[in-house]
Fold each of these.
Amino acid sequence: MLKVLVLGSAAGGGSPQWNCNSHVSKLVRQGLDGTTPRTQSSIAVTSNNKEWFLFNASPDLGSQILKNKQMHPQKDLRHSPISGVVLTNGDVDHVAGLLTLRERQNLSVYAHKRVHSVLKENSIFNVLNPDYVDRREMSMNTNFELKNKDNVGSGIEVEAFEVPGKIALWLEDESKGENFGTQEGDTIGLKISSKDDGKFFFYIPACAEMTNDLADRISGSEMILFDGTLWKNDEMASSKVGEKTGQRMGHMNNSGENGSMHALKDLNIKNKIYIHINTTNPILIPNSDERKIVEENGWEVSYDGMEINL
Amino acid sequence: MLKVLVLGSAAGGGSPQWNCNSHVSKLVRQGLDGTTPRTQSSIAVTSNNKEWFLFNASPDLGSQILKNKQMHPQKDLRHSPISGVVLTNGDVDHVAGLLTLRERQNLSVYAHKRVHSVLKENSIFNVLNPDYVDRREMSMNTNFELKNKDNVGSGIEVEAFEVPGKIALWLEDESKGENFGTQEGDTIGLKISSKDDGKFFFYIPACAEMTNDLADRISGSEMILFDGTLWKNDEMASSKVGEKTGQRMGHMNNSGENGSMHALKDLNIKNKIYIHINTTNPILIPNSDERKIVEENGWEVSYDGMEINL
């Protein structure tokens, strides 16, 4: 079996965002229309209800751990049910939480070598003392079992694969043209399986485009947690909170001909769940037309604290 | 006038700490004995109830902004009452919150040149786009007015001064002997004044020793927020959650002959308030003997959300 706990369901900055006063952020601050605060994108997965792996470590990790009892220390004076972390890219909203995981705790941190190299270049991540924290390079397109610092298997298997995306914002290099220096491996998706019973799901919190390869890969699967950042490509501009399009940020829309609802419609995926949802996205409002549309298309909108058994 | 809002009253890791199961952390998680969660050390100060400066930016800044209405955007689609940040050292618990202050917001960030240089070496802080965020070097022992990005005065004046301390943990260099490469300016204290009426207080969240110079400086003042990390020097070891002493970490004890209660006893300071309190410190338990002792000695124990008018 696998159990998934959504620690954070929002995109970078969370919902509300600290300096955003747009419609959804305002509603969430006022607790109106059934909206609730959402922290930044991260899930935890366990195969035994005891040890958990985090998938991405958001800047909100401290409050996420406090809010979810499953993440509390269970025994001894220093303990955590968190065995390690798997990173899908180098975005601040996916790596800054590593800074919270200091204090002498054994951990294994899995990432693409591109991501490891930028963590290494940033000495602030030295708070993760190598006596306790083992940084492990993740090969692509290979199934392997996640292991804790002492190399004890977790019962969780992972296959990582590159997906269309974008280099992290803080690593963009404008001199490198319109893709800002993006390379293969800057954004990855994951197939996460139970070693025991073989059940699996996909976790793809950022994806710029549905390729044929990717569609083949996820087709027929039982569950997917997928990039739900924006309802439409120009949402930041039309909400007047920014200029960047979804494509510029490396994200597919939910709606439209080139959107994820359309792209996944005929892929025969049983449970489709949006995660990494930006605070501008109207699907965050339970009674909105857009929420109705995604639900009619067979999608759920994830929320902080959501538990899924597989 | 000055108004002080305590955003976070705990030392690094907060209380409870994520992987700590010692007495106080356990009580806080269970909500027992009047204990409450405390986030990591930071205060906000305003002279006009509209614009605020942060003093230190903790990893918990996202949740601190959400919890305190004074920090919410008040108008327009992008807005924040936060005009800037002043840093007292380069510790993760004082700088990681800068990563939360992304999203196109004008800010000025004041720090010692030592701290600016390590921020510059860590490219992850490039999320603070220089079009919006102005990094300003703070001279020591000079009174100056904090100004926002557009150089409009805040009505808050600051004088920074070096205090005995330690280089940030992630910058320690064991090859440099027992002080790990610590230099002047790695830890500073601040005198924070109202430009309007001249009232002032001291904010010294880390201090390894009370020197004669420092005692002279703070003597007779109306208020001090002072390093309350540990009750006693070997508290981490005796709580069995670590080995480091307070001295090793650059902090004075509250208690004892070399402690802050003793050192500040005869300095005629009207309001003495502990801040940056570690989760092992029994003064965090309202009904503890140690809390009684600090209160009998004229100290208050700060808490998240505490407001002080000066």
Amino acid sequence: MKKNYLLTPGPTPLPPYVCKALAKKIIHHRTPQFQVVLKEVEENLKYVFQTKNDVYILASSGTGAMEAAVANIISANDRAIVIDGGKFGERWTELNKVYGANIELVKVEWGKSVDPKIIKDILDKDKNIKAVFATHCETSTGVSNDIEALGKIVKDTNAILVVDAISSLGAIDIKTDGWSIDMVVSGSQKGLMLPPGLGFISVSPKAYKLVELCKTPRYYFDLRLSKKALAATDTPFTPAIGIIIALDEVLKDMRQETLEVIFARNKKLAQSTRQAMISLGLELYAGKDSSDSLTAVRVPEGIDGEKLVKTMRDEYGVGIAGGQSQLKGKVFRIAHMGFIREKDLIVCIETLEEVLSKMGYKFEKGKGVKTIEKLLG
Amino acid sequence: MKKNYLLTPGPTPLPPYVCKALAKKIIHHRTPQFQVVLKEVEENLKYVFQTKNDVYILASSGTGAMEAAVANIISANDRAIVIDGGKFGERWTELNKVYGANIELVKVEWGKSVDPKIIKDILDKDKNIKAVFATHCETSTGVSNDIEALGKIVKDTNAILVVDAISSLGAIDIKTDGWSIDMVVSGSQKGLMLPPGLGFISVSPKAYKLVELCKTPRYYFDLRLSKKALAATDTPFTPAIGIIIALDEVLKDMRQETLEVIFARNKKLAQSTRQAMISLGLELYAGKDSSDSLTAVRVPEGIDGEKLVKTMRDEYGVGIAGGQSQLKGKVFRIAHMGFIREKDLIVCIETLEEVLSKMGYKFEKGKGVKTIEKLLG
């Protein structure tokens, strides 16, 4: 039986206590027993989101929470800035198109972060912009965008700032209140170390005013229903009970470890991974804009990127991610967040070296492992 | 430590093999390993749905799948018949209102099933009706509607038949193809013995034509994306991987046991429960229209229904459901589906007798247990 190591940027591996919590007998959601869980979860979500705003839990994956953001803010013909620098920026674009937004599309070259000044210029010229949709960590390219800078720009305008933090929340620093982010959207299967199935969205008072005015039809993702239910320690529809019970454990664990310690660990893992890649002569796809959630690496010339990922997974049991859309076969991606630790990355880089070597890539064998061992040591 | 018995009509108890499957290490969803699961699940879902149509899996609870049905069929001002005889019929009404349907509302007295002739008359008069929204088992009242009769009526019209089978699928007979049901909507936490977090929807070719014509904005629940993904053994967005892996086990188990055996068991449990209630001098809320998924019972005069449910749950560890909306405090509801077995019902009725007796209800003590034991014996 093969032992598997999961280093994909979502889902990320589950800690043993999460598996144990998921295996518990189910309880009914409209009981004082489940309300205790919901109360604890809500309080600890605020800690992880670094906010005093409500955080709503949806029974959906992250895209459902993204849809909630758009469908509760954008009425047909509303003006919106969409920052689109990868597959998940494209998702904001698609959602805004579907809901009839009049889009000011800020296309960013894949592998680069957005220049906040561009956003400032648009907002200065157009006072009718209702929302700016941004991506914190663009999972498809490994780029981290400067959300703090965007927050400073959007804060004093009529617009709200909506951030996809699906692969950043709980992995790298994101200060919802400190950076003036009106809506932070996330999911369960990345920094929060859970199976997919929960979406999250925090809503500032400034954003909630727009929610109340929004004319778009919505029901399952209607945040007015979420707000009303939360006030009664309830959810508007049957919640994903099992994953929420495991979330309760995760959040208590994270709170005990503290965000500072978690972010520092991931940063160290990220820096070490990047150095190891460079030591193998490989190129970081996101260069200086690389996120500390995951590292995207260019597949070297002449190597079949899809085969590389497939071989590592199917022959060695080491799961990393390939490229998506236009990057198919051109990058591979290694996560360093959630329950991924030093030894997982050593296993990953050791395997990567072995497979790259077999596939004919020329490099000094052992250098990647030596580099990461030294940096993590 | 108290031992708990769960007899609520959703969530229903998890079999031990489900708990075990939920506790497994997570795998990535875009892998051949997960595709094996998806293929098996799709084939076995068709068995449980009794259909050759596609069955789409959504990362949502049942209401999400209901929204998918409405948002993919109803454009603003479309004519729709909504059969509304309880809290979940109301949900069809609310969803249709949100999406701008021009509703022909068929209000049915709570506790009664719909008279199919009423639907026939409306369809005969109005050829522009696009869809008929019905509820198979109305969980709030314990009523089972005659979907087979509705299917015969709707079949030869321009309209499609959409059925909420959330608390009936896998619990009582529902023949998607045999009864000409165009969309069957369900969820994971009832007859399928899983935690909540998955929604399902089957789509007939007649319904899919309307999906393609529908102008309503949708994205996360866009069934065109589901269809395209399914053809590639994929899902449009990150699926609820963990619950799907457990679903695979459940469906194999159900297929081995066969639907016939499962339906016959639930029917026997239902009949015995109803007789036990009558033997205690209690009244069945749904009378002759009672579903074999759950039994709704009127709280006797002078007894506090909410306290009854609370006492059974918090003092005896026996979870049954109270009434919802206008039935709050007026009924209690006992499920007999999924992994609920003879002994659970004996425990439930024994406890019910004890608590009713303490609360001052006059009846021949022991008669309920004796009745169900005899009938199940």
